[in-house]
Amino acid sequence: MWALVEMENGIFPVLKLSYDELPPPLKQCFRYFSVFPKDYLFYERMLIQFWIAHGLLQSSSPNEDLEDIGRRHLNYLSSRSFFQDFDDSLTFNCFKMHDLLHDLAQSVAKNECCTVMSSNQDIPDGVRHLCLDKVDFLEENIRRRFLDTNKPSRVRTLLFHDMTEASSIEFFLEKYLSRFQKLRVLDLQGASFHVMPRRMDRLKHLRYLNLSGNLNIKKLPNSICKLQNLQALIIDSVGLEELPRDMRYLINLRMLVLSTKQRVLSESGLEQLKSLRYLGIYECENLEYLFEGFQSLISLRTLTIFYCKNLMSLPHGLKSSTSLKDLMIMGCEKLDLSMTLGMEGREKEEDDNEDYPVGGGLRLQTLAIAELPKLKAIPQWLLVGSTNTLQVLTVAECKNLTTLAEQQELTSLEYFVIVDYRKLSSLPQRMPCLKHLKIDGCPVLSERYKPKIGMCWANIAHVTNIRIDGDKISSSDK
Questions:
Q1: 402, 376 in Cβ contact below 8 A?
Q2: Per-residue pLDDT tens for 407-456?
Q3: Which of 32, 178, 395, 458 is most exposed by smallest CB count within 10 Å?
Q4: Residue 46 near residue 232 (C-beta atoms within 8 A)
Q5: Is 107 left (phi over 0), alpha (psi -120 to 50) or beta?
Q6: CA-based Rg of the chain, rounded to a whole angstrom?
Q7: Where do runs of H (alpha helix) occur along 24-97?
């Protein structure tokens, strides 16, 4: 689409018209794209938290999460081709924005947003949102023109991009960060430095803190836990040895993404984070046990656990987490989903013959499981309460899985992906709402569900979009 438009004269008025037709709340959200550099890879969940941090998302209903409103805004913009390179994987939706649309966002934002790429660059007086790209804070010009003025006191966003000089960043953080007293968003993703300022609690308005990708940080100051307005804390892919001990005091935290070298997570009070909507636990190589009290996370909607190779089991309380909607687990070599582990460290094997009351416990909408070699069958506690709610199911590369809920009636399932199961021979018998089915690397399934002639073909003939081993099944094949 954009290649054709670019060839025409007057492209900017055309793009401006698209912007003018947006509803007012989306216009405001769109302008904030200008904070980020061109060709920036956006992750849906983080962008939504960025909008929330700046108060751009408002709910008219107490039962509606701001995250759902943000997702609707992104779907609206995507449907009108505002994004490109969109990857709608089940774990993270990510995308980029076309350069011309980024130019438009900068145009409508005017001097409110600014990208600084040189110490000699003038920074507007009214700037509220700053992207610092390869800036050296040790140079006198940047200090004289900006840091030593009153401009930092007005800034709401600091986004560091491609900042790898540790001494420069540490100098800035220690000497100047406290001047940004109205800061709401501090994004240090990928920045290389060793120490965070001890008096982080001075940033009383901070709502979003991203430290991901910094392998040099070993410890965070406990003063971070005094940031009671903090709503998103992203500390994955870092060298963090342990979490701050008073995490329980982050009472407004909605999103927590973490990596740590701890063996257990039971000492920081994570179970007391009543506002938490999203919990991501990534690449915790020593982690064996999470924490008890998942049922106390009354707002938790999404739990993702990726590449925690020593994690052995999930806590008992997870089965009673009635608010949880999305569960995604990948790359946990020792994890046995048929076992749960209590606070006393005593394992209990779940009995699949146990009576699980429908409507109690988990009522998932999305379940994604991949690279779990100890998984032989999906346990009942994961599925039985979700038979009428589960909409997305992905199972991939669990080499010992031999059975897949054949007796379950997944009456709400719409999207089903099965990858690399050579022994798997059948699917759930009744999936009346299924719209998308992908079977790849499953020779027995491919034969049994072969169009028209497979012995189980009739069970999936109603599905609109079917792909088997990369081949799309056309309507004529049906």
A1: yes
A2: 678 999 999 999 998 888 889 888 999 999 999 999 999 999 998 888 99
A3: 458
A4: yes
A5: alpha
A6: 25
A7: 24-31, 44-53, 66-79
Give the residue among 226, 176, 175, 179 at the shortest CA–CA distance from 200. Answer: 226
Question: In terms of pLDDT, which residue wins out, 4 or 245?
Answer: 245
Q: Give SS3 for 35.
A: helix
The pLDDT tens digits of the residues spanning 280-320 come to 999 999 999 999 889 999 999 999 999 999 999 998 889 88
Q: Is 408 in contact with 428 (CB distance < 8 Å)? A: yes
- Give dist(CA 465, CA 473) in Å, integer: 7
Nearest to 372 by CA among 284, 413, 312, 444: 312
CA distances from 254 to 5, 131, 268, 278 (A): 40, 24, 16, 6
Tokens of 465: 């979009």
How many angstroms separate the CA atoms of 258 and 243, rounded?
Answer: 9
Judge contact between 395 and 421, C-beta under 8 A.
yes
In Å, how far are 13, 197, 211, 284, 462 from 220, measured between CA atoms? 48, 9, 10, 16, 54
CA 46, chain centre distance (Å): 6
Query: Can you spell out the DSSP letters for 237-274?
Result: SS--SS--TTGGG-TT--EEEE----SB-TTS-GGG-T
259 vs 306: CA distance, rounded Å: 10
Which tokens in the block code for residue 63?
A: 């039962």
Outline where 87-160 has alpha helix (H): 99-109, 140-142
Cα separation of 289 and 266, whole Å?
Answer: 8
Model confidence pLDDT, tens digit, residues 100-141: 899 999 999 988 998 888 777 778 888 899 998 877 776 777
pLDDT at 2: 46
Q: How far apart are CA 73 and CA 59, in angstroms?
A: 13
For range 21-45, the mean pLDDT? 93
Provide the sign of the torsion angle of the four alpha carbons 274, 367, 282, 311, taken in this order: positive
User: ∠ CA(248), CA(251), CA(254), 5° rounding?
Assistant: 105
Which stretch of DSSP H or E encloses residue 43? strand 42-43
Residues β-bridged to residue 281: 258, 305
Evaluate whether 13 touches 107 at the Cβ level (below 8 Å).
no
- Reported confidence tier of residue 9, pLDDT bands at 50, 70, 90: low
Taking a C-beta distance cutoff of 8 angstroms, is the pair 137, 172 a contact? Answer: yes
Query: How many other CB atoms sit within 10 Å of the CB of residue 436?
Result: 15
Instruction: Tell me the whole-structure pTM to 2 decimals.
Output: 0.91
User: How many other C-beta atoms are found inside a 10 Å radius of the C-beta of residue 136?
Assistant: 16
